[in-house]
Amino acid sequence: MSALPQAKYLKDYQPADFTIEDIKLTFELEPTHTRVTAISKVKRCNKAALDFILDGVELNLIEIEIDNQLFTEFSQKDELLIIHHDADEYELKIITEINPLENTSLEGLYLSGGAYCTQCEAEGFRKITFFPDRPDVLATYEVKVIADQTVPYLLSNGNKIASGTLENGKHFAVWQDPYKKPCYLFALVAGQFDVLTDSYVTSSGREVKLELFVDIGNLNKSSHAMASLKKAMQWDEEVYGLEYDLDIYMIVAVDFFNMGAMENKGLNIFNSKCVLANQETATDKDYHMIESIIGHEYFHNWTGNRVTCRDWFQLSLKEGLTVFRDQEFSSDLGSRGINRVAAVKVMRTHQFAEDSGPMAHPIRPEKVIEMNNFYTVTVYDKGAEVIRMIHTLLGKDNFRQGIDLYFARHDGQAVTCDDFVSAMSDASGINLEQFKHWYSQSGTPNLVVKEEYDSLNQRYHLTINQNHPATADEQEKLNLHIPFAIELLDENGDLLALQHQGKPISSVLNLTGASHTFIFDSIKSAPTPVLLVDFSAPCTLDFQYNDQQLINIVRHATSDFSRWDALQSLFIKHIKHAINSEDTQEQSLPYEILQLLKWIVNHPQLDKQLISELLKLPSFDTIASQFTVIPVDQIITVVQTFELQISIALQADFISLYRQQNDGGQLTALAVGQRAFKGMCIYYLAKTATDEIDKILQAQCDSDNMTDVLAALTALVLANHSLATAMLAQFELKWQRDTLVMDKWLALNAMLNAPNVVEHIKQLYQHPHFDIANPNRVRALVSSFAQFNSQYFHAVDGSGYQLLADLLIQLNKINPQNASRMITPLMSWKKLDTTRQKLVKKQLDRLQQLENLSPDLFEKVTNALK
Ligand code: B3K
Ligand code: ZN
């Protein structure tokens, strides 16, 4: 048996012994035997170091030369090439051969639907050539790509400096990237595409060529991505004074891709799902997602590429910061409240679960087996929350000065999270020493808040305690510096001034100790506190709100986020109450809440998209996170009961309001809001079928707007409506040739609320559209099932868990990275009841016993079973 995968530790970081400052690469592209010639300038950095050690995986080594002489003084061990050579500087030439066609891991150089493409982050460059594959080795690259003329576009990073034809029907292009970069930002693409070209003039007046490469025939779906790119370029100039730095910016959309997109310098590679959109084929959510990912990858040009990570433990340096930047970009362009709601949902649904499960890790992990396992909601989304807290503590202007200082100090370097925090505190003069524990400590702090109103002195006291539950990776925790934003409302919902002893108090309270009492003067009657406004810190909150206080917040709070948050608390409070109570009378939503919902849906001023968010009950996972043992069946029953109640109580409102919406298929914020609102109405309407409602549903299924069609189909599927099967068949017939739309169809099938859904999914493995080697297909079908079909995923015969494990066993061989991401729904098994625990454990045991279990799955399964 091969040795078990080994962990690497942050504490063991050492600077590189040798560096490569310049590399010339030549690729002679052939599907099964691509020849890669790498000529590097090697320099010894550590005089005491003996050998130059390079990484290489699945490479066929052909020849090595040093300073133009054949070189044989090397050895190979595991996945390392060891060069025994005394000189301090030399030219190293390595020729290797690789097989893109057989590369199903989608890491390194592979073929995606006939096009060559690369993915090197985190450690994929070692599948292309031998190299010190670590982010602190920064080099300039010159890349020559040679291929048959049947492959017209030959692309790599930087600017094209030469191209031409060769003998034997071949041609070539040479690219030069003047900016030093780590090898994870290397990219090569070669294939046949349609190209959308455009240009952008930067604030200093330089013209940048923009090129978007899509599969032949897809130009009619490319304009939104291009428009988004230009908006992102402008936003970064306006908000951070950051301009693009090369003469050309290219984006390529490919079908086979492990994640959303990749920020390779000057040549972003995108999952086609995150680029292609038109009104017929993409939903408003897709449009929003595309804009935000295009922005995200563009923003990496500075936060990630110009300043990169010293080592992979520092991943949040670039990812947390860039997610924060893309969230702000979306909020500036669209609705701040809605964007905040979306970000907080990710935190509460996924990040809190990760932090309380077997893979808990700080945003700067200390121990890693497979780096690809750490592109997590913790590193990305909690990382962004940590940056947001710095923004809150420093204020907008200081934050901008901190960013300026960060670039002034570190442009062109590979640095650490500590370097970032130092720039922030040096620029602002604000001490962030205690705050830094957010980087090293995992887990979700729990804040217990108590109030006391002293009517005699008209004083209000708020006592906040911070508690830190132990996590799988760490028992002992430190107190954190927590920015705790509040508002106080009077009984009419008016905002009260915050003051103590005649001085105003900032609405952001600084909690640093285990417990602190804050005192507010001149409060004339017991107020309603709005706590953790805008989710000012990634914490859970315990406060004994009564319904009236929460209703007051929903009706009056200044922040849309806080209104939504209060309504979520109200729902959760009553869901928990219903689950814990024996009395069936208690298992329904109280009349006051139904009245509140009626008031909301009929509100003339509230943004329609916000209304549709407000009306949604919390997700299964959000509710589950409230329990130590997840009452799966009860959650499902109570949610169904409440939704049915809402749909009956508001049926007439939903029908008449539905009929009033007239979005005309536009893309304006107003029209997007109207479609979201209609979607919410029919979601509830589908639960109480009448002839009139059926007609509405049928008509919306026939719409030529994908947002509408998908909303109608989702409503039918989740309500187990008699029209569901026929409408899904109609959809399939219409869209069978559109790959991305067919993924939506797969996902809908996986969500069918029907006892035979597992068998149905197995049959769909044979569908001509399904391809187990394509992550989009696999996730559309199986992850949608695990995430959105809680009832059947958690079926007590274990069939849901087995379906997922069977798939993971296959994916372990084909694409370990994808397998490892898809195992998430099995990870938190210890929170299930004992019957279900046994069923999941059986599947985890099966995985653990696999021969050739990939390091990716090994790390997850081992932790899960600990
Ligand atoms: N940096 C890439 C993610 C790479 C994932 C490697 N498994 C995309 C992004 O965050 O922008
Ligand atoms: Zn990123």
Automatic annotation (TrEMBL):
Organism: Pseudoalteromonas tunicata D2
Residues in Peptidase M1 membrane alanine aminopeptidase domain copies: 225-437
The protein, known as: Aminopeptidase N
Reactions this protein catalyses: Release of an N-terminal amino acid, Xaa-|-Yaa- from a peptide, amide or arylamide. Xaa is preferably Ala, but may be most amino acids including Pro (slow action). When a terminal hydrophobic residue is followed by a prolyl residue, the two may be released as an intact Xaa-Pro dipeptide
Domain annotation Peptidase M1 alanyl aminopeptidase Ig-like fold: ranges: 443-543
Residue ranges occupied by any Peptidase M1 alanyl aminopeptidase C-terminal domain in the UniProt entry: 547-866
InterPro entries given in the database record: Aminopeptidase_N-like_N, Aminopeptidase_N-like_N_sf, PepN_Ig-like_sf, Peptidase_M1, Peptidase_M1_dom, Peptidase_M1_pepN, Peptidase_M1_pepN_C, Peptidase_M1_pepN_C_sf
One Pfam short name: Peptidase_M1
Record family assignment: Belongs to the peptidase M1 family.
Function description: Aminopeptidase N is involved in the degradation of intracellular peptides generated by protein breakdown during normal growth as well as in response to nutrient starvation.
